[in-house]
## 1
Amino acid sequence: MTQKRVGLYPGTFDPITKGHIDIIHRATRLVDRMVIGVAINRDKAPLFGLDDRMEMVRTEVGLMEDLHGCTIDVLPFESLLVHFAEEVDAGIIIRGLRAVSDFEYEFQMVGMNDRLNPEIETVFLMASDRYQFIASKLVKEIARLGGPVTEFVSARVAERLYERFEGSTQSSISAGAD
Ligand code: ADP
């Protein structure tokens, strides 16, 4: 029996964008099982809590078609990436690569992870040119300012973004009214 290929796609997913979805879809062609690791990432002070980010990823993945027979699990993690990869038996770490701006950080990370566990290979995928420029950070900024974001995220995620910013605007208004 051939060994199943397990891939780990880690990220913050704050929130999941069409760029992430494109990478997930491409990665299903490479692995039999994919773990999407949602980083707790307290340092980045995510807009959405871990449960919300995981739920959004699960919903979007649940609606994806043609996963090439790949099974996908969405799990949280806070440990060192290579330790988490070992824990879930992943031989491949999947990362998406956008413009040159991603390269330096990713280059360093691959080097360090390779020292920590040379058995784990990092694979970089590029999203389709329609989605390559999408970054969660900019999507949040546009939504915060009331701009349209459905070109970058699903309608469901867009709804969550507007809800979140509506809530914060209202609470800051009521806080200011005291
Ligand atoms: P992280 O905090 O690890 O950067 P992100 O959720 O921002 O988490 O991104 C997770 C992974 O998805 C990273 O490898 C990132 O480069 C990749 N990614 C995010 N957006 C895109 C996109 N539009 N096209 C290609 N890759 C992307």
## 2
Amino acid sequence: MDEADTKLRKAGGRLCCICNQRRAALKRPKTLEQICRECFYEVFEEEIHQVIVDNQLFKPGERIAIGASGGKDSTVLAYVLSELNRRHNYGLDLFLLSVDEGITGYRDDSLETVKRNEMQYGLPLKIVSYKDLYGWTMDEIVKMIGLKNNCTFCGVFRRQALDRGASLLEVDKLATGHNADDIAETILLNILRGDIARLSRCTSITTGEDGPIPRCKPFKYTYEKEIMFTYAYFKRLDYFSTECIYSPNAYRGFAREFIKDLERIRPRAILDIIKSGENFRIATSTKMPEQGTCERCGYISSQKWCKACVLLEGLNRGLPKLGIGRNKGLNNGRKKDVKQTSGTKSIESKQCGTLDF
Ligand code: SF4
């Protein structure tokens, strides 16, 4: 034991297990190592850099939009990607892309955070709104449909809004702040819902390569606790932490709580769920949806009309439940008065609740 170690131990401190010089400031949620802040910043950022390099997420010269909600994940993503881009000469042009769902008292406030991030990180910001794209705000939709299924509308519209915003920015890729906890939760939900098509692709670090704009998740293996309670907190990043006022999503909430319980007992559980998801082999007899384009708006769709057009048609016709659930609505060849159903199986678009995009 050297002199510095002895002094620290006498003062009741513990040395960082990486540099063995500075006082440990935290126990890493992912590995339970006791480390100092400086070493934490370094390993946190370098792990993300390694994920980017190993998975070839970006190519030099690419234009990348960062899905920015003002929440902790996307704020940390914007900050870390800017840092890594400079430090490792990725040669990327980075942009912030936000969606204004039209939720008074929530998104208007969080967008103010994104506007500050635009100045703080020097990244150009583009905001696309549901009102401009679809003619409806979420406030208006909730007024019509109530608080059941609102996240289905929001999730479907957001997915398409991000693609439309990305194409306006003429970017090559969209990077989102989905973290390891989100991925583990989505794997679990897809198993619980028997959604094999989504199960087979929800673990991919890059998706949509056959669509208009590929999406990637640089935080695929990054723990939420490290993003929020550690990195964002220690770095004093400016993010918005209020939950959406329309966030019901009880089913996803149960899955989330279950994963948090597992993590408390065994921190590796999150990575192990992801690993299991990555190694699932989907039976060749499983019918997968065929990708085409929506006859109405031209957006990618495995049906005659894309989900956003079906939902929009329902809203505009005063039949808001049209298209909720599987195999219902206009795509089933039923032109009107479709039997209304409740519940949804669509979780691809990260129906957020407390989550970022
Ligand atoms: Fe939209 Fe998320 Fe709010 Fe649901 S919780 S209404 S998906 S912002």
## 3
Amino acid sequence: MPATPDLSAILRQYWGYDSFRPLQERIIHSLLGGHDTCVVMPTGGGKSLCYQLPAVLLNQTVIVISPLIALMQDQATQLGQIGIPAAVLNSTQPQSEQAALMSKARAGEYRLLYLSPERLLRPDTVGWLQGVPLALFAIDEAHCISEWGHEFRPEYRQLSWLRTSFPAKPIAAFTASATRRVRHDILNQLHLHDPHKYIASFHRANLRYAVNLCEPNTQLGLLVRGIRHYGDGNVLVYVPTIARVDETVDFLAEHGIAAVPYHGQMDPNTRRTNQEVWMSDECRVMVGTIAFGLGINKAAVRAVIHLSLPKSIEQYYQEAGRARRDGLPADCVLLWQTRDSGLLAYFAGQIQDPAERERAWERYRIIREFAESNECRHKRICRHFGENTKWDRCDACDVCGYHPAWLAAPARLEPVQAKAATVAIDTARSAEWAFGSPELRDYLREWRRNTAHQQNVSAFIIMYHTSLEEICQKPPTSLAELRRITGFGDRKISLYGDRILEALRKFREGARATPAPQKKVMPAQETKRLLAEGKTFEQIAAARGRQLRTVIGNVADLVEQGEVEFQSTWLSPEKQSVIEAACARIGLQWLKPIKDALPEEITYDEIRLVVARLRRKHIAPEVDRKEAIS
Ligand code: ADP
């Protein structure tokens, strides 16, 4: 290693970046100097580079511990693409593959080696690692070590073993969200010696927070308005339960907005495909549960909208922080309802450990207070993480007077047909489109998608959205010009340079992206059609890739709207009559009291269907669901 390495030259040569982000250079120096180090930096701040760049210079292997296998794999692939040998070792790989990786690691062939905590803790690991030429340990998502954190992982606790087994090797802990208490816990648990601490500000000046208390029947209407407002921008919607993922995706589809779902119970292939579809801009709206987003790195997310209170400020800060447009403002909108506390009670009730349950409630109390308080949102978040701020007003949150235009007026939905004709671009969008042609953008996205597909990697591994945007704004005509685009280091230029120039040449000669087929999904109509074909609810759920509950909800709506006849075969005559009797006593407005009054074996789904029929029959439907949100 040279005495004073030219870090900027390495940054340019491998990563194709012009300058360091705040703190990166100091952190890299700390690691190169062999110090234990603790880094708290917001998502998107550029933590990975801090341990990846030293790996290039220290002629040894950096061991990275991360709980997210998919993320590790992406990082290792990306590193390979920029010419830095890296690999992932985890317990799910076949034995032979693990053995091959382990012997290559001993031979010092990797600059970075990613390990899951489970793999690290296997009894045979220490002996093997002692034979690997180790530079240092980097612990990603280090807050998982603390039970005071919101993502505590018991297996992380045992990482304290690293210090005992490798007393001379530096340990660097990285996290995006840690309160003082959690930071303290990280230092203690990992036994860091006199660590260098780097704590970036929690203030994300380009995020604009807005919190809005909604009535149940206005929330989805607002969401539709919001998504339409963001035009072609990417939007990430967080919902609290899997059932709400399906419901929301269907609701959006009925209003002409395509969205991809994401939740923990999907099969891994569908999940990966859906993530890819969103990451590569094929579909601009993603609706997911908390399962979505760990390690997600998408440069252009115009808004993150939450449809219920998250479980903690840390969680909110992390999820909202996925809104980023590289310096341009992005909106983080929390559309919550007072009934969210019921859901939390449900989640908290599932926690066995009384102390952990208590902590869950405490976290909820704080986020609820955040939603209801009159303190600047930015200030409140910083304060939560122990940071004192100096300003009184930020002008970038609802408390300080910022309101996204679509939140200001009541939500009125236009019918889908009208939406199809809505091609007018709003003012904000036209300003963005002033740079670069949308045709070139579509064309390059398609090129990137196809190239990624051929190589079986994610689209952003070929090039980030920011690089793609830069190319649109200043289409290069030579390799030297392409070299000036952020993200194009030596290796990327040699891998893709000629192909990109060739694609751009074809574009100039008239080549264009294949027009996307106009696909209009109307979930309720699709359910109606399948019902008319004689399909059972289960078959419809399977055909549409939806939860059974969602399909029955659709059917109940159709019955209530008079579009589908109630079928007496849906449930036994006995059940129908008990439900009817309960409805006669209690009324049809709410399902819960009816459910409470009935034997336990009668399900909400059965009640929903009977109530839908009665509402249709006895009372003119109080309000059509779609109009209720107008
Ligand atoms: P974090 O782990 O802190 O969430 P990442 O390490 O994933 O953030 O970095 C976020 C994004 O910023 C990545 O696309 C990364 O390549 C990019 N990035 C990191 N450092 C720089 C830099 N100095 N210049 C430009 N882009 C950078």
